[in-house]
Design goal:
This protein is mainly alpha-helical and about 160 residues long. The protein is about 80% helix and about 0% strand.
Length: about 160
C-alpha cells in the first residue's frame, strides 16, 4: 500500500519592508544628512547657528573674545572673579564650539556605522532570498522523488 505524503510546500511571502527599502537607499552618511533638511524658519536658523558655532574657527574667535576681559580680571586679583571668569567666560565660550565639533565627528562616525549596518542587513536579506530560491528548488526535486517512490512502491505492491 502506497503511503500518501502530503505535498506541503512552503510559500515564500516577501516582507513589505523590502520594497520600501528599495525606494530609498543612501550610500553614504552625507546623503542621509542631506536628506534631513530643516523645514521651518526656526529650524533653519537653529541649524545655521549650530553649523557656524560648531567649528574650530568659532572656538578661536571666542577664545580671542575671552582674552578681552582677562586683563581686567587679573588686575583686580580677586580669586572669586578669576574662577568666575574661567567658569563663565572661558569655559563656556571656548568649550561650546569644541564640544559641538567633537559631537559632529561622533555623529558622522555613527552615521557611517549605521549605513554599514544597513548594508550588512541588506546583504543578509539578499542571501536569505537566495537561500529561499535554493530551498524552493530542493522542494521541487524532493516532490519529484516522492512521486517517483510512490509510483515504484505502487508497482511493487501490484506485482505481489
Amino acid at each position: 500500500m502506497a503511503s500518501k505524503t502530503p505535498n506541503t510546500k512552503f510559500e515564500y511571502v516577501q516582507h513589505p519592508h523590502i520594497e520600501g527599502r528599495k525606494v530609498y537607499r543612501a550610500t553614504n552618511a552625507d546623503e542621509v544628512i542631506a536628506g534631513a533638511k530643516a523645514a521651518t524658519v526656526n529650524q533653519k536658523l537653529g541649524l545655521g547657528i549650530t553649523k557656524s558655532v560648531g567649528t574650530m574657527w568659532a572656538a578661536y574667535v571666542f577664545f580671542a573674545i575671552t582674552l578681552v576681559s582677562l586683563p581686567a580680571v587679573i588686575i583686580k586679583g580677586d580669586p572669586v572673579l578669576i574662577v568666575s571668569w574661567i567658569a563663565q567666560t572661558f569655559l563656556q565660550l571656548v568649550l561650546l564650539p569644541i564640544i559641538i565639533v567633537g559631537q559632529n565627528i561622533q555623529a558622522a562616525a555613527a552615521e557611517k556605522r549605521a549605513i554599514m549596518t544597513y548594508e550588512d542587513a541588506a546583504a543578509v536579506l539578499e542571501e536569505s532570498i537566495q537561500i529561499q530560491k535554493h530551498l524552493d528548488h530542493q522542494d521541487k526535486a524532493l516532490a519529484h522523488l516522492i512521486s517517483r517512490l510512490e509510483y515504484l512502491e505502487a508497482n511493487i505492491l501490484k506485482k505481489k
